[in-house]
């Protein structure tokens, strides 16, 4: 496993080639990114592709064929190629392989760019359809941040979604990990004090059809993490329950888990993205560290 290090006057980060996954985000020698203790959750910030979340029964159908695919897809368990690396920017690439085609019948190219500017890390995704047919996919982020960031307790921290407005909440079934779209409803709450019970029904999933940001902050210090994006239609907020894990995930998604009533057809999957032959899909988000 190879680690790429980027830094500027404010931040230093590390990215592993395995999964092109963030491994560290430091400011003032304080580690903001969860360090992957396997007693709670061994991952840190996996890239979710070509699906986000779980499939009903762990499978989908395409062109009259059934494919088995685990939750969040396969990119997080693939070794990416490092294409470019400078002091403050790195680009990683994953392409189709025999292994990926066994579970996902499309030729693709996925590039992930990490770039530092001041106290911000911008993460860019570019998916290109190299196939001769339309391609169907989801892509998402799953970064976990230490709670507490420096001092205090889990309950001293809060998550705030902006803009402050009513937004659609989509319940997950904690037993299956899939959605219950029939129970989707508006929620006016935008500010959530962290408690263990907050996540007793799995992740909190919201629709975010407009530019959105989620801030992790504290009442006992000035450190915070803000995730912002322009073009991600969903966000998940998650910490394991009932384990008292010292982290929380803020997850902007272009894709989402199956609905419990799905027929399994990938082409009509809720939240799926469609990409024509030769075309590119781009999305990005920014992590601001204070």
Automatic annotation (TrEMBL):
Under the heading InterPro entries, the entry gives:
Aldose_1/G6P_1-epimerase, Gal_mutarotase_sf_dom, GH-type_carb-bd, LacX
Signal sequence, renumbered to the chain: none
Q: Which superkingdom heads the taxonomic lineage of this protein's source?
A: Bacteria
TM annotation in the entry: none
One Gene Ontology BP term is: carbohydrate metabolic process
What single Pfam family name could you report for this chain, choosing any that match?
Answer: Aldose_epim
Q: What CDD domains does this protein's entry cite?
A: Aldose_epim_lacX
Q: Which GO terms describe its molecular function?
A: carbohydrate binding; isomerase activity
| Name of the protein | Aldose 1-epimerase family protein
* UniProt organism field: Pseudolactococcus raffinolactis
């Amino acid at each position: 496993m190879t680690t790429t290090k980027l830094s500027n006057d404010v931040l230093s980060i590390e990215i592993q080639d395995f999964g092109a996954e963030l491994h560290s985000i430091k400011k003032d020698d304080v580690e903001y990114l969860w360090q992957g203790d396997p007693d709670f959750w061994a991952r840190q910030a996996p890239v979710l592709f070509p699906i986000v979340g779980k499939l009903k029964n762990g499978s989908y159908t395409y062109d009259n064929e059934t494919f088995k695919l685990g939750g969040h897809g396969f990119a997080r368990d693939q070794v990416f190629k490092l294409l470019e690396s400078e002091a403050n920017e790195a680009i990683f690439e994953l392409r189709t392989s025999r292994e990926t085609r066994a579970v996902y019948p499309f030729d693709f190219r996925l590039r992930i760019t990490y770039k530092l500017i001041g106290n911000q890390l911008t993460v860019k995704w570019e998916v290109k359809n190299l196939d001769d047919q339309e391609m169907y996919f989801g892509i998402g982020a799953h970064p976990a941040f230490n709670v507490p960031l420096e001092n205090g307790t889990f309950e001293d921290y809060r998550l705030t979604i902006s803009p402050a407005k009513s937004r659609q909440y989509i319940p997950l079934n904690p037993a299956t990990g899939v959605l219950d779209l029939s129970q989707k409803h508006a929620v006016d709450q935008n500010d959530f004090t962290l408690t263990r019970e907050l996540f007793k029904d799995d992740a909190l999933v919201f629709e975010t059809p407009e530019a959105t940001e989620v801030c992790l902050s504290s009442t006992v210090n000035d450190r915070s993490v803000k995730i912002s994006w322009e073009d991600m239609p969903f966000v998940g907020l998650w910490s394991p329950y009932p384990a008292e894990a010292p982290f929380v995930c803020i997850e902007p998604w272009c894709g989402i888990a199956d609905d419990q009533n799905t027929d399994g057809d990938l082409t009509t999957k809720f939240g799926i993205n469609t990409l024509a032959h030769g075309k590119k899909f781009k999305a990005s988000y920014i992590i601001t560290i204070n």
